[in-house]
Amino acid sequence: MNKQEYIQNFMRKLREQAASTERQPTREDEDRKVKNTIRSWWKNETPAYQHFKYNGHGKPKTDIEYFAHHFAEAGIGLKDSWEYTKETLRGYIDAESLGDGEDNWHEYVDEYNRTAYRQEFRDKIVSYGLR
Predict the structure, then answer these.
(1) Could you read off the pLDDT of 106-119 as tens digits, one per residue?
(2) Which terminus has fewer CB within 10 Å in the chain: N or C?
C-alpha cells in the first residue's frame, strides 16, 4: 500500500468513526425544525407565504389557516401544532380568540383536516440546510 492509499484509507475510517458517534436527529428534532421553518416563512412573509394567502382562493386565507395547512402537510400532530400556533400568534391575534373551542380553533381544525400529509414536503424542510 502506497502512502496515498494509506492516507485515504485512514481518512475513510476516521470519517466512519466520527459518523457513528454523531447524535442522530429524533422525530422531535425534526418537528422542531419544521415548526421553526414554517414560522420563519410566516414572519418573513416569504413568496411561499404570500402565494398561500393570496392564491385566488376567493378570499385571502388567514394566518390560522396558513399554520394549520402547513403543519398538517408536514405531519405535525394537531394538538402540538395548535399549541405552537397559539404561542406564535399571541400578540398578533387577540389571545382570547386563540382559546381551545373558540372560532380560531374551529378554523384551524377545519383547515388541518382538509390538508393531506405530504412526505416530500416534510423531507424538503427537514433536509433544508444540510449538505
Answers:
(1) 999 999 999 999 99
(2) C
Tally of CA atoms within 13 A in the half-sphere of 22 that contains its CB: 8
* Neighbour tally for 71: CB within 10 Å: 25
Q: Which residue in the block uniquely carries the three cell numbers 394538538?
A: 79
For the residues of 36-90, what is the DSSP string, one character each? HHHHHHHHTT-HHHHHHHTSSSSSPPPHHHHHHHHHHHTT--HHHHHHHHHHHHB
pLDDT, tens only, 31-52: 999 999 999 999 999 988 888 8
Would the CA dihedral through 50, 65, 90, 103 be positive or negative? Answer: positive
